[in-house]
TrEMBL record:
Residues 11-204 form the Hexokinase N-terminal domain. This is Phosphotransferase. Pathway: Carbohydrate degradation; glycolysis; D-glyceraldehyde 3-phosphate and glycerone phosphate from D-glucose: step 1/4; Carbohydrate metabolism; hexose metabolism. The lineage of its organism: Eukaryota, Fungi, Dikarya, Basidiomycota, Ustilaginomycotina. Its EC number is 2.7.1.-.
């Protein structure tokens, strides 16, 4: 028989497994540092530390009109970004559907379609640029081996794309050839990862930034690194002092030497598309937080301490409990006995738990589970930020006029999840002290794949 446990014992056991105390945070941060150094010196590391070949960040005074192309989300997006040199811009954009046939057919068909979409965009919207040739920044959100700001070879496809003749090819060349075949006067000048784009976009808007972090479907970060520390880059030129590095920190500690992975994380990981990969991301990002919480809730149900042991079809379904529901539950301030609290509404109306199975204690328990899972995510996120502050030598105040380090963040989790930033800051204080934490100036970095790519094209022209 199942040994009976009380609700309190069961919840406490969960809380213990998910708690990251200060010594643990510190050991994670130390491990982060090790893996930063390893990734900067070695190709093919678990945390890849990919050089972007972008050798500076905007100051907000940049001017000009640039195109941006974004492939990798649900749609293909074409934008024209006009930078006005004052941290602000105007943007025109259009989305184009990419059919399954194009996603899986010959790669030239896909790139011809992209060139045609750019042509259609220019026909429909015209352009405000007076240049002979328009410069374009290309956000291509798939794994590429980048070897110059305008050169990168596709490693493999993800997200339902699978043109068989594309891996190994330079995607900038593919796009340029397609544009040239159609005599479209556009030059693809830069290939920009979306996290790098977020850093450029925030640096432009905030008049300087050193770090970017994405907490959306997945998690990733980029920062401006001293070129001498990027040891694997053999081509470092004397005139270059810094380069933006795309960390791919979702792959932090895939060897699991430091992360306190619970059985709930293991279950989420085992049933995911790529098991034993990106465990850090699976403990933090929007795609997985709801799923971790769902596994915890089911465990409590199976111990018969929640909802009288009853579940629902949706709660039993993988990815059936969205991270957005956790946000709604964590924002709920109503009394647990209320018959109309947002938590009860999510459980009954959205999740299909029977009203008569939900007690006021159950409401409290569900809130506690969301708090526990959400708090761990925010504190793990702080490890990445703190490690990057240490890595860039930015923990100490520079004096009375210190204006800190600007960090651009993007993604639904940082934007909408209640208390995420405040919890992250709590852990930052434990890791880099109050002085260090105060130096972290967080701003929302909007539209890295549009404005960021345009700024990448501008930066490419400067670097010539
Ligand atoms: P992307 O990272 O794909 O550009 P988003 O930043 O919007 O897009 O992240 C989408 C992820 O955020 C999804 O996994 C979704 O479950 C989660 N999400 C959506 N809304 C919220 C919310 N209000 N609170 C927390 N997470 C959310």
């Amino acid at each position: 028989a199942v040994p009976p446990v009380s609700r309190q014992q069961a919840v406490q056991a969960i809380e213990e497994q998910f708690t990251l105390d200060k010594p643990l945070l510190e050991s994670l941060s130390a491990r982060f540092q090790e893996l930063y150094d390893y990734g900067l010196a070695n190709h093919g590391a678990e945390m890849q530390m990919i050089p972007s070949f972008v050798t500076g960040v905007p100051t907000g005074t940049e001017k000009g009109t640039y195109l941006a192309l974004d492939l990798g989300g649900t749609n293909l997006r074409v934008c024209e970004v006009a930078l006005d040199g004052n941290g602000t811009f105007t943007i025109k954009q259009e989305k184009y559907k990419v059919s399954d046939q194009l996603k899986t057919g010959p790669v030239n068909d896909l790139f011809n379609y992209m060139a045609t979409s750019i042509d259609n965009f220019l026909t429909d919207f015209g352009t405000t640029s007076t240049e002979d040739v328009l410069h374009l920044g290309f956000t291509f959100s798939f794994p590429v081996e980048q070897s110059a700001i305008d050169r990168g070879h596709l490693i493999h496809w993800t997200k339902g794309f699978n043109c068989p003749d594309a891996p190994g090819k330079d995607v900038v060349q593919l796009l340029q050839d397609a544009l040239d075949r159609k005599h479209i006067k556009v030059k693809c000048s830069a290939l920009v990862n979306d996290t790098v784009g977020a850093l450029l976009a925030h640096a432009y808007a905030a008049k300087g930034a050193l770090i970017s972090a994405i907490f959306g479907t997945g998690t990733n970060g980029a920062y401006l690194e001293d070129i001498r520390k990027i040891k694997k880059l053999k081509t470092a030129e004397g005139s270059i002092s810094h380069m933006v590095v795309n960390t791919e920190w979702g792959g932090f500690d895939d060897e699991r030497k430091a992360l306190p992975v619970t059985i709930f994380d293991n279950k989420v990981d085992r049933e995911s598309i790529r098991p034993r990969n990106h465990i850090f991301e699976k403990m933090i990002s929007g795609m997985y937080l709801g799923e971790v919480a769902r596994c915890v809730l089911l465990h409590l149900i199976d111990q018969l301490v929640l909802f009288q042991g009853f579940s629902s079809k949706l709660l039993n379904t993988q990815y059936g409990f969205d991270t957005a529901y956790m946000s709604a539950i964590e924002a709920d301030k109503e009394d647990a006995t209320s018959t109309s609290s947002p938590t009860r509404t999510v459980l009954v109306a959205t999740m299909g738990i029977k009203e008569e199975h939900i007690s006021a204690e159950d409401i409290e328990t569900v809130r506690t589970v969301c708090r526990i899972v959400g708090t761990r995510a925010a504190r793990l996120s702080a490890v990445a930020i703190a490690a990057t502050m240490v890595q860039t030598g930015n923990v100490q105040s520079t004096g009375p006029n210190d204006d800190g380090v600007k960090v651009g963040m993007d993604g639904s989790v940082i934007e909408y999840y209640p208390h995420f930033e405040e919890r992250m800051r709590g852990a930052l204080r434990e890791l880099i002290g109050e002085e260090g934490e105060k130096r972290v100036k967080i701003g929302l970095a909007k539209d890295g794949s549009g404005v960021g790519a345009a700024l990448g094209a501008l930066q490419a022209a400067k670097q010539l």
